[in-house]
Amino acid sequence: QVQLVESGGGLVQPGGSLRLSCAASTSIFNIYRLGWYRQAPGKQREFVAAISPGGSTNYADSVKYRFTAARDNGKNTVYLQMNSLKPEDTAVYYCNGPIKYSSGAYVGPGDYWGKGTLVTVSS
Questions:
Q1: SS3 sequence of the chain
Q2: Euclidean distance between CA atoms 123 and 77, whole angstroms
Q3: Could you tell me the pLDDT band of residue 12, with boundaries at 50, 70 and 90?
Q4: Could you give the angle at the alpha carbon of 36 between the alpha carbons of 103 and 81, nearest 5°?
Q5: Are the C-beta atoms of residues 17 and 9 closer than 8 Å to each other?
Q6: 34-47 confidence digits (pLDDT tens)
Q7: Would you say 29 and 95 are in contact if contact means Cβ atoms under 8 Å apart?
Q8: Apex CA 43: angle with CA 94 and CA 96, to 5°?
Q9: Are 13 and 123 in contact (CB under 8 A)?
Q10: What is the spatial distance between Cα 9 and Cα 11, in angstroms, rounded to a whole number?
Q11: Cα angle value 95/97/98 (rounded, 5°)
Q12: Is the pLDDT of residue 28 over 80?
């Protein structure tokens, strides 16, 4: 059974930082790209970042240079370090896998989702 469990959300002021964690089942962690999506109130869920088993990363343009995806293979955990947070980053953040790529191009989310963790950026 595949499990993805997020943690680390909370309330932060604009310009602040948070780190999200996603603990994953071994069955999915070692083989597939894992990553993050987010859904703001009244909006569709959108791609944020992905990281391959080898550590290659991809980011949405809206978070590039502010967010960093990383992984700890010893803990079966992927992380999303979020810096310079803005109010528009407020959303529920979901861990997902296996994120689908074809010939290096992003295709879409995988079948497995965590329950999400709320990030609120507000003064």
A1: CCCEEEECCEEECCCCCEEEEEEECHHHHCCCCEEEEEECCCCCCEEEEEECCCCCEEECCCCCCCEEEEEECCCCEEEEEECCCCHHHCEEEEEEECCEEECCEEEECCCEECCCEEEEECC
A2: 30
A3: very high
A4: 115
A5: no
A6: 999 999 999 999 99
A7: no
A8: 20
A9: yes
A10: 7
A11: 165
A12: no
- Residue owning tokens 């595949």: 2
Q: Which amino acid is at 2?
A: V
Query: Is residue 115 exposed (0-12), middle (13-18) or buried (19+ Cβ within 10 Å)?
Result: exposed
